[in-house]
Amino acid sequence: MEHIRKRICDYLEENNIKSSQLCEILGLKKSPLTDWKNEHSRPTLAQIVAICENFGISSDYLLFGKSLKCVNLSTEDRELLSLFNELNNDEKKICLAYLKGFIDNERRHTAVSDHQIKIVGK
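Structure (tokenized):
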């Protein structure tokens, strides 16, 4: 369990993720990091799952130390994920809604353009 705690702390530090962000994700008022570091408590399975899902960390990495490189994130993907992780939950919802709308709009625009090309090409 010591290794899991260390990998969580290392990941948070390397990615400039604040303990307050971890609290928000885990639904806690106080960061568990101090308790984990002092071995007063350990991350629960539910907390490990929430960390993996919200930060895009492989459970293989947290549990077994397998390299994050196996996830194959590009530099742009890592940057996007890092920026996204700086947002609070409400901001993340807004960002996701905007991104989904943007993608839908682009697909509709592309479909219209393809249709116009076919009509012109008749």
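The radius of gyration is 20 Å. Helices lie at 2-14, 19-26, 33-37, 45-55, 59-64, 75-85, 89-120.
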